[in-house]
Structure to design on (452 residues):
């Protein structure tokens, strides 16, 4: 049987920690154990809370959860084989089948282990095992170990959130008088704010404080030169071409789906963009897609989504609370909706979605535009492989394209496609960490329609 990391049919191998000194190696060796240690500390720090809520049972659950997490940390650090999940949840079988698939690819020569397997897989697996440790230990099964960091990121970005909501109010006040060019200008700004909101990622900083302190609008022009691919004009024209004359001759807009990344400030930038798209008539409805379990330290869950809107409503700032009230009414009127699906918290690359999650693929086909936020989504879009930088985005997607899609991402992992000839080499000579520092960004678009 062929080794799992050979180039097959022109598809390069997955990035993995096998290469000593690579970013994947550094992540598995240093960042993941740091995150696990913080998770263990967080659970231990909440011991009294568990005791108050659940008595002796809570203390027992805390001890056993920590024991399972410490065991996993040891497996990771000593490059032990990846183990099957035992918690019997709805996605357990699918995870274990994925492991068997990898074992089949490896053959008998070597086990599927932490450092030898695809980085994307082992990183996702670690977060799923954190959930397993909690789920196996009721009554603390539903505890979100990352919650404190997410709420802190939101509160520390208050000034920037107020600025954004004030900017949005300004647009709404003069909405009737806006020319098409002014509308485009506001769209471009808010798309960029949502893009750069992706810098606030707690998994890349291993949970260190990472909030937005400056005005997100004022810093846009100074960041422009760091955008390596800018297909924002295609996003705009996709929104315009989704507009159709309705029954009464009135123009109706299309549906936009936003596949979310981080909670905290980044989620607010996504909500502000979504509000603008609906209020300006560029979108008829917005479907948000988040994670069904706490994931990659700061990813959005249903709880984070609802909490953020409630906090915005309750803010002691006129335009911020007005925005929150508006968002709540969009949800009530089903103009906005939040969805999660187990596929988002599995290790599959997105080209597997049509086979492994046909229901989700069919849901996404109903969108006129898909916005994929952040680094993990980009890694899954491109399969997190050792692509040459000049390979087209469409090639790296390997057939995935339920609808026109755009990746909004600041670069924090060493995969990037769709660059101009020589662009990657030039960046490497000027700034060796360009792919992992979060300093550079892309707005990269693909439409399956353009392939027909």
């Amino acid at each position: 049987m062929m080794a799992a990391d050979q180039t097959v049919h022109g598809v390069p191998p997955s990035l993995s920690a096998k290469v000593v000194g690579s970013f994947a190696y550094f992540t598995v060796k240093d960042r993941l154990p740091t995150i696990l240690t913080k998770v263990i500390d967080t659970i231990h720090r909440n011991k009294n809370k568990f005791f108050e809520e659940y008595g002796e049972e809570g203390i027992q659950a805390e001890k056993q959860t920590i024991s399972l997490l410490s065991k996993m940390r040891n497996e990771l650090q000593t490059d032990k084989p990846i183990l099957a999940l035992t918690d019997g949840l709805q996605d357990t079988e699918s995870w274990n089948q994925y492991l068997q698939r990898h074992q089949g690819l490896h053959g008998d020569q070597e086990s599927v282990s932490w450092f030898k397997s695809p980085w994307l897989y082992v990183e996702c697996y670690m977060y799923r095992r954190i959930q397993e440790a909690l789920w196996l230990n009721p009554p603390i099964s539903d505890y979100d170990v990352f919650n404190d960091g997410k709420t802190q990121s939101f509160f520390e970005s208050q000034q920037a959130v107020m600025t954004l909501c004030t900017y949005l109010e300004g647009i709404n006040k003069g909405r009737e008088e806006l020319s098409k060019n002014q509308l485009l200008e506001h769209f471009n700004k808010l798309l960029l704010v949502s893009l750069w909101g992706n810098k606030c990622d707690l998994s890349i900083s291993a949970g260190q404080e990472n909030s937005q302190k400056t005005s997100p609008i004022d810093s846009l022009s100074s960041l422009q030169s760091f955008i390596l691919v800018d297909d924002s004009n295609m996003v705009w024209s996709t929104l315009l071409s989704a507009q159709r004359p309705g029954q009464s001759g009135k123009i109706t807009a299309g549906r936009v789906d936003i596949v979310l990344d981080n909670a905290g400030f980044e989620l607010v930038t996504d909500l502000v963009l979504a509000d603008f798209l609906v209020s300006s008539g560029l979108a008829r409805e917005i479907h948000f897609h988040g994670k069904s379990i706490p994931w990659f330290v700061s990813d959005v869950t249903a709880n984070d989504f609802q909490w953020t809107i409630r906090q915005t409503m309750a803010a002691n700032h006129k335009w911020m609370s007005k925005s929150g009230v508006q968002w709540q009414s969009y949800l009530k009127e089903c103009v906005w909706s939040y969805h999660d699906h187990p596929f988002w918290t599995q290790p599959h690359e997105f080209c597997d979605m049509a086979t492994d999650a046909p229901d989700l693929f069919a849901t996404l086909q109903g969108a006129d535009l898909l916005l994929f936020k952040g680094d993990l989504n980009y890694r899954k879009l491109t399969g997190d492989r050792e692509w040459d930088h000049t390979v087209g985005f469409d090639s790296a997607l390997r057939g995935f394209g339920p609808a026109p899609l755009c990746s909004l991402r600041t670069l924090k992992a060493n995969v990037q496609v769709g660059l101009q000839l020589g662009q990657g080499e030039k960046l490497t000579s000027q700034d060796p960490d360009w792919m992992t520092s979060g300093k550079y960004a892309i707005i990269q678009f693909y439409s399956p329609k353009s392939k027909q």
